[in-house]
């Protein structure tokens, strides 16, 4: 039997599959990434990550946000400043989005050519 939270109708199993669900406390996120909590706060201050807040006001991170933080850590460990690492991650994300849009447009154009 699948349990459903009456607040939003989403099952616990669905939350486990959701990359955007804020499942990790700051302490757990820092432990998983091998960083300090101050590092995560710095990413929040840099406005790269905006973690959700629990009812008690504590930061909560999603798996997607942990992947971003891990990428920033790789760049910082490679000698980049935190500011430049954040900028690189933003640019990488924008480039990936542009590639997705380009692929979608190509597919739409190909489908249009086939229909003609």
From TrEMBL:
Q: Which UniProt keywords apply?
A: DNA-binding
Citing just one GO molecular function, the answer is: DNA binding
The keyword DNA-binding belongs to this UniProt entry's keyword annotation: yes
Q: Where is the HTH merR-type domain?
A: 23-91
List the SMART domains: HTH_MERR
Q: Which domain of life is it from?
A: Bacteria
* PANTHER family in the record: HTH MERR-TYPE DOMAIN-CONTAINING PROTEIN (PTHR30204:SF93), REDOX-CYCLING DRUG-SENSING TRANSCRIPTIONAL ACTIVATOR SOXR (PTHR30204)
Please identify the protein, giving its name as recorded. MerR-like DNA binding protein
Q: Which organism is it from?
A: Nocardia ignorata
